[in-house]
Specification:
Elements: H1 15-20, H2 42-62, H3 66-81, H4 83-103, H5 110-119, H6 125-133, H7 142-145, H8 149-158, H9 160-186, E1 192-196, H10 204-207, E2 223-227, E3 237-242, H11 246-251, H12 255-267, E4 270-274, E5 281-286, E6 296-299, H13 303-313, E7 322-324, H14 332-341, E8 345-348, E9 371-374, H15 383-389, H16 392-402, H17 409-419, E10 424-426, H18 429-432, H19 462-474
Parallel strand pairs: 1-4, 4-7, 8-9, 9-10
Antiparallel strand pairs: 2-3, 2-5, 5-6
């Protein structure tokens, strides 16, 4: 649900590196809240870092000297290089903040009543208030909501200072990230990134490209994304993202998607595209439904999309640096698309022990090596947590399969992953550290309290590195 699929998260910007660049002083970064070392508390983080980032921007604008002149030249070059998305993104965030402030104490104005009437058939009264006072883009003045060029230009002038601030944040994010990536690559480390198939309704991506999405005259989705009832949820998962107009994307030779993947691959070396099965067919839920139960499968763009993507990126299909997240309701058609595209799929060991010896996720049943095996992903419990909560029959089968007692289930599972024939093995940090379920990253279908796990420096014990090296050596990884 991010505001842009192209922009970086400014809250990842390091204050320490800003001090090194003389963009902040040691005094500036003092007085940090007493952050919990093992769990992110986003409210204080955002408040603290926003204050620092505003200071850094003010110093950047007013500063003199050779170093600042160099940075301003770099900033201008950065803005020109990323103009295709940066202009829309920075105006989007600046306008959103402007309207939130403007409406904070305005009450039920004529504009609110008009928005209410236009949306009362698909939104609850609570959602209407949340959307309007949260300044979702389709609640903006109509000409700006339509991305009318004259309105865009006018608001760019009106919000010029805030726009520059949000562009500055992207400059700092990319500058720091590029430095980190160079450091990692020079050390022989590749970075695996992740993008979801869909983007957020309330994003600069949709606002600036409405013709590429299935929207009505009011800017609302005709239908939204999700998945039907499955392992994770009895009522499915209602993600709420607008659906692509694949016919419109095809006419442009999928140029927006190619730019999206190019941008992601400038930040990472290998890209995992979430919900791969949506390219074969996707679950469309009528807008306004409260759950994902009432939906239907709609044909996706299929193999021609991946051929266009390969051509646009200058790669043979089989050489695309992409992992296909082929989990969920996987049909023969989805498997055929994955195999035809040559992309490696995923194998999750926590799913392997719930049926019988024929389970597709059991390593002895892998039919090809072009796969990435995980003990579990961000959507799963930690392996220690999984083992604690698993039914007795699954625990018993796991113990017999691993020929282990289950007392160290995480490392037993890791050994199975490393020993498999899958080309790549990925292990969550929580499993390396043998952490319980309270440290899991995400609970699908639960809107709050996720993505908060942190580890401390003290948790990075030398014996863990030695254990990983042992597994690498014994299984030639």
């Amino acid at each position: 649900q991010s505001f842009s699929t192209f922009a970086g998260n400014p809250y990842l910007i390091s204050p320490d590196l800003l001090v090194e660049e003389d963009a902040l002083t040691e005094e500036d970064i003092g007085g940090a809240p007493d952050f919990n070392g093992e769990s992110v508390d986003y409210g204080p983080v955002i408040e603290y870092k926003t204050r620092l980032l505003r200071k850094a921007f003010e110093r950047f604008q007013s500063g003199a000297g050779v170093k600042n002149a160099r940075r301003k030249k770099e900033f201008a070059s950065f803005c020109a290089k990323h103009q295709s998305w940066l202009d829309d993104y920075s105006l989007f965030v600046a306008a959103k903040n402007h309207f939130i402030e403007e409406r904070r104490f305005a009450g039920e104005t004529l504009e609110f009543i008009q928005y209410q009437h236009a949306n009362e058939k698909v939104l609850t009264p609570g959602q209407i208030k949340d959307f309007y006072y949260g300044a979702v883009w389709n609640s903006w003045p109509p000409d700006l909501a339509r991305h009318d060029p004259a309105a865009v230009s006018s608001w760019q002038n009106a919000l010029q200072k805030d726009i520059l601030f949000f562009q500055f944040l992207q400059y700092e994010f990319f500058r720091q990230w590029d430095s980190l990536k160079i450091y990692a690559n020079e050390a022989g480390i590749s970075i695996v990134g992740d993008i979801p198939i869909f983007v957020a309704m309330d994003s600069s991506d949709v606002w600036a490209n409405t013709e590429l999405f299935q929207l009505d005259a009011n800017g609302n989705p005709l239908a939204v994304a999700g998945v039907p009832p499955d392992y994770f949820s009895e009522t499915g998962q209602l993600w709420g993202n607008p659906l692509y107009d694949w016919a419109a994307l095809k006419k442009s030779r999928y140029s927006w998607w190619i730019r999206r993947v190019q941008s992601a691959l400038s930040l990472v070396d290998i890209l995992r595209i979430d919900h791969f099965r949506g390219f074969e067919s996707y679950w469309a839920v009528p807008y306004g439904e409260k759950t994902a139960v009432r939906g239907n499968w709609v044909q996706g763009p299929g193999l021609p999309f991946f051929k266009a993507l390969g051509k646009g990126l200058g790669h043979e299909l089989k050489d695309l640096p992409i992992i296909a997240e082929d989990l969920g309701v996987v049909t023969e058609e989805v498997e055929a698309l994955r195999d035809a595209s040559g992309l490696p799929g995923m194998k999750i060991l926590q799913f392997a022990f719930s049926s019988d010896a024929g389970n597709d996720y059991l390593p002895h049943n892998f039919t090809h090596t072009n796969a990435v095996i995980y003990t579990g992903t961000h959507d799963n419990d930690t392996t220690k947590g999984w083992y604690a909560e698993a039914p007795e029959n699954e625990k018993d089968y796991f113990r017999r399969y691993a020929n282990a007692s289950g007392e160290n289930a995480a490392w037993d599972m890791m050994r199975l992953a490393y020993a498999s024939t899958a080309a790549f093995a990925i292990v969550p940090m929580q499993d390396v550290m043998n952490l319980g379920g309270q440290h899991r990253m995400n609970r699908p279908g639960q809107a709050a309290g996720n993505w908060r796990f942190r580890y401390t420096a003290e948790m990075l014990k030398p014996e863990l590195a030695k254990g990983l090296m042992y597994l690498c050596e014994i299984f030639n990884r």
